[in-house]
Amino acid sequence: MLIKTKIPDFTLRFATEMDVPLILQFIKELADYEKLLHEVKADESILLDSLFRRKSAEVIIGEFKDKPVAFALFFNNFSTFLGKPGIYLEDLYVNPDYRGYGFGKTMLSYLSKLTIERNCGRFEWWCLDWNVKSIDFYKSCGAEAMDEYTVYRLTGEKLKMLAQEF
Questions:
Q1: pLDDT tens figures, 2-13
Q2: Residue closest to 43 by CA, chosen among 61, 26, 21
Q3: Kind of pairing between the strands at 67-79 and 84-94
Q4: CA distance 56 to 59
Q5: Model confidence pLDDT, tens digit, residues 55-113
Q6: Pairing of the two strands 123-125 and 84-94
Q7: In 3-state terms, the chain is what percent helix, strand and coil (to 5)?
Q8: Are 62 and 68 in contact (CB under 8 A)?
Q9: Residue-wise over 5-23: b if at least 16 C-beta within 10 A, else e?
């Protein structure tokens, strides 16, 4: 099902299993932009299982004149304070050749609408500190930085070490 937007020839749609190679391509392009390509461990089989078998996240594809130019990957989180789920945006990526046309803002706007339609209390995401263009863009959309929080992460061996203490 195509979702029409206010931008002529720009549509959105939910990804299908056939989009897995495209999703992986977008992930790698974003990782390269963020100078983190070396950290990408995902492959097509992992994405197929995670996105379409286990339904751990959802993906929206942005198409301009029927050509995929953007994607957003998101999933539910939960706010104990609100007692409601939220939508967490893991990745938003617009191909560099198609930036500046409002595609990213349109995708954020659609996800905001989806957050409300699904009766979620929040729409959240992270942004790298050095990515000033994105920070300025998010602020122009009305987003507020949650500067009083620090993100903590366990992965790899440190994750295994803590799990072994149980």
A1: 999 999 999 999
A2: 21
A3: antiparallel
A4: 10
A5: 999 999 999 999 999 999 999 999 999 999 999 999 999 999 999 999 999 999 999 99
A6: parallel
A7: 40, 25, 35
A8: yes
A9: beeeebbbeebeeebbeeb
C-beta of residue 20 within 8 angstroms of C-beta of residue 44 = yes
Collapse the DSSP code of 6 into the 3-class scheme (helix H, G, I; strand E, B; otherwise coil) and give the result: coil
**Of 14, 27, 24, 104, nearest in space to 59 by CA:** 14
Q: In what order do the strands lie in the sheet with 84-94?
A: 3-4, 10-14, 58-64, 67-79, 84-94, 123-125
On whether the CB atoms of residues 17 and 62 are closer than 8 A, the answer is no
Phi-psi sector, 147: left (phi>0), alpha (psi -120 to 50), beta: alpha
The helix/strand/coil state of 166 is: coil
43-67 per-position pLDDT tens digit: 999 999 999 999 999 999 999 999 9
The C-alpha atoms of residue 159 and residue 145 are separated, in whole angstroms, by: 28
Residue numbers annotated as active site: 138
Nearest Cα residue to 87 out of 47, 58, 48? 58
